[in-house]
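Supplementary notes (optional reading)

For those who missed the lab, this is the record we used. Protein: Hypoxanthine-guanine phosphoribosyltransferase. Length: 182 residues.
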Amino acid sequence: MTKHAPTLTAALADAELLYSHAELESTIAHLGREIDAVLDGECAVFLTVMQGALIFAGQLALAIRTDLEFDYVHATRYRGETKGSELHWLREPGVSLEGRTVLLVDDILDEGHTLKAVRDDCLSRGARRVLVATLCTKRHDRLVEGIASDFNGVELPDRYVFGYGMDYHEQGRNLPAIYALK
Ligand SMILES: O=P(O)(O)OC[C@H]1O[C@H](OP(=O)(O)OP(=O)(O)O)[C@H](O)[C@@H]1O
Ligand SMILES: Nc1nc2[nH]cnc2c(=O)[nH]1
């Protein structure tokens, strides 16, 4: 949490519940079945973009029946703020992606800078294909060209959201639902 960050309690008091825990659990179970159908038995590299994707990734992995190899990257461009800036890489992939199918897992596709950069990095490391799985996608016209989610759970209005892995000034990541600031 940054030194003078607004409090989570104040944010929650003035936030709207968008998706409940039960809705998200059933959405993620459905995504798992879709991903199994596309993988068709192939062991993909399940590459989590830390740290917002942590909670979604854990649940999604349990919903996928195909065996997977796990790795993670840590890339951030919001750094506890509610507006993004340049992308900072804190950890690159540890396993070889050469010739592999990568299932890139993130909590949110907003403007797309993060997933585009990580997807392009996977391809430059020789990944044969990169499939993108996101818990949520924001609806607006600021999405960068050339990135989309192959498996997306829910759609969001163009407002700052938190919960289910997503932070409000580094707070609220473990809230079991998605909220939006009004
Ligand atoms: O589509 P974009 O506009 O690039 O935004 C999406 C990214 O923003 C969040 O990460 P953030 O930089 O907040 O770091 P975090 O995962 O540690 O919360 C989220 O986890 C995505 O990776
Ligand atoms: N917590 C959070 N992280 C984001 N990263 C990109 N958009 C958002 C958002 O609305 N909320």
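If you only remember one thing from this example: The chain has a mean pLDDT of 95.
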